[in-house]
Amino acid sequence: MPEPRSRRDAVRNREAVFAAADALFAEGGSPEDVTMAGIAAAAGVGKGTLFRAFGDRAGLLRALYGARLEPLREAVETGPPPLGPGTPPRERVRALLDAALCFKVDNRHLALALEESGGASPYAADHYRSWHGLLKSVLEQLPGWAGSGHASFTAHALLAAVRADLVERLVGEDGVPREELRAQLGAHVARLLDGAADTRPAHD
Amino acid sequence: MPEPRSRRDAVRNREAVFAAADALFAEGGSPEDVTMAGIAAAAGVGKGTLFRAFGDRAGLLRALYGARLEPLREAVETGPPPLGPGTPPRERVRALLDAALCFKVDNRHLALALEESGGASPYAADHYRSWHGLLKSVLEQLPGWAGSGHASFTAHALLAAVRADLVERLVGEDGVPREELRAQLGAHVARLLDGAADTRPAHD
DNA sequence: TAAAGATACGGACCAGTGGTCCGCTTTGCA
DNA sequence: TGCAAAGCGGACCACTGGTCCGTATCTTTA
User: Per-residue pLDDT tens for A39-62?
Assistant: First the structure.
C-alpha cells in the first residue's frame, strides 16, 4: 500500500507550525505561556490545522521533541564512540547521560513543556522508554551488573537526574554553568558505577 | 500583636476542605480529575471559600501536603535515630530517602498533583528546599564529602530518584511491590555512598 | 486546460477549568 | 439584643484545549 503523499500545502503548514512552535519555546517564557492558539497564529495557520496535524497539544510537543532529538538518536544508535554501540559500557553510560544532559540544557523549555504536558507522566512517552531500555541494557554489560536486577532502577534514577525541571532549576534559576553541571553529573555517574570519584567532565 | 483567631466557621470549613480534598486524592483518579469545584462540592462549601482560604490551587495542595508531611518532618528534625539528628550520616541518608520514598508511595496522588501543579517547578517549593538542604548537609558529614562540592548535586539526584511521577510509574503502573522498590533504592544509595552493593532494605 | 473529486484549511464555536466578586449570612463582642 | 466585621458561596469571567463544517486549495483525469 503506497502511503498517499501529503498535499503540498499540508507539508508547508506542518513545517511552518514546527518553526513557529520552536521559536516560541526557544524565546524563553514559561512552557504554558505557549498556547495552541498562539502557535497557530505565529505560524499563520488556523487552530484546526494544528489539531488535525498533531492530534493534540501533547502530540505536537512529541513531534517537535522527536525532530530535535533525531540527530542524537541516530548518533546513539549507529554512530561512532563514545555514543555509538562500539563503546565500552562504563564510558558509554557516561557519554549517554552527558548527551542527555546537554540536550536538556539546550532544549530546556521544550523538554519542560513536554514533561509536564497532558496528564500522562513523561514516563509513558516512547522516547523515555527507549532511553531507559538502552541505558538499562548498557548497564547490564558492566561486570557484576548482569543478573543483579538493579540495572532498571539505576537507569531510572540516572535519567531522573537529568529531568528537565531539575535542569531548568539549576541552570535557569540557580545559574549553575553548563560545564559545571556536566562535571557534577559525570562525577555522579562515576561514583555510582565504580565508587571512585572521578571528577573530570566527559569529553566532547 | 495578638493574631486574631479565626472564626469558628472558618476553621470548621478549613477542616472540611482538607478532609474532602484528601479523600478525593486518595480515591485514586488522576490528579487533574480532582478539581477545585469538585473539592468545594465534596466539602459542602462554596468555591469562593476555597480560594479565600488557600489563595489558589497550588496553595491548597501545599497546605494539604504540609499537613501530611508534618509527622515525618518532626521525626526528622527532633526524633530518634535512624531519622533524627543523632544518626551517623551514612545511615541517616539511607533512612531519609527510604522515608521519603515510603511517603511518596503512600501519598502518590497528592504528591503527583503537587509536583505538577501550577507552572512553578516543584523545586521552588519550600519543602523541597528544606529536604534538599538537610540531605546536602548530611552528605557533607560523610568522610571525603565535606569540601568536594558534590553534596548539593548528589542531594538533587537522590531526591530525583523518588519523584512522585517515577514512583507512580513504578508502583502504580509497572506494579513493582513497595518493598522491592525500597530495596532498590537502598541499594542505589549504598552503591552511591560507598561503592558497595548492600542490598538489604532499610529497616523500619 | 477544464472540471471534478478529494483533501486540507481555518475560525467560529463548545466545554470545562482556575480564579474573582459582591450581596447575603453568620459570628463574636459590647 | 444590636451591630460591625468577618466569612460565605454561587453566579460570573477569562482563557484554555479541542471540535466542526462550509470553503478554498490542490491533484488527477479527460
Answer: 999 999 999 999 999 999 999 999
The closest alpha carbon to B149, from A201, A184, A195, A21, belongs to A184
Residues A166, B153: C-beta atoms closer than 8 Å? no
User: Is the model's pLDDT at A19 over the cut of 80?
Assistant: yes
Stated in angstroms, how far is B92 CA from C11 C1'? 60
- A78, with CB counted inside 10 A (0-12, 13-18, 19+), is exposed
Under an 8 A CB cutoff, do B150 and A123 touch?
Answer: no
Model confidence pLDDT, tens digit, residues B52-101: 999 999 999 999 999 999 999 999 999 999 999 999 999 999 999 999 99
Is the CB of residue A87 less than 8 Å from the CB of residue A99? no
Q: Is the peptide bond before B71 cis (omega within 30 degrees of 0)?
A: no
Q: Is B90 on the interface with A (CB under 8 A)?
A: no
Residue A77 and residue A114 in one domain? yes
A145 and A190 fall within a common domain: yes
Backbone angles phi, psi at B44, to 5 degrees: 65, 50
* pLDDT band at A89; cut points 50, 70, 90: very high
CATH code (residue B34): 1.10.10
- Residue A46's nearest CA partner among A55, A36, A54, A56 is A36
Residues B177 and B108 in one domain: yes
State the count of interchain CB pairs (< 8 A) between A and B. 90
Cα(B94)–Cα(B96) distance, rounded to whole angstroms? Answer: 5
pLDDT in tens, B135-154: 999 999 999 899 899 999 99
Residue A58 CB in 7 A reach of strand D: yes
pLDDT > 90? residue B134 = yes
Range of the domain at B148: 69-194
From A152, A198, A193, select the one nearest B174 (Cα to Cα): A152
**CA A171 – CA A174 distance, rounded (Å):** 6
Could you tell me the three cell numbers for B112? 503527583
Clarify whether residues A11 and A106 are in a common domain: no
* Percentage of residues of chain B with pLDDT beyond 90: 70
Asked if residue B199 is part of any domain, the answer here is no
Number of domains in chain A: 2
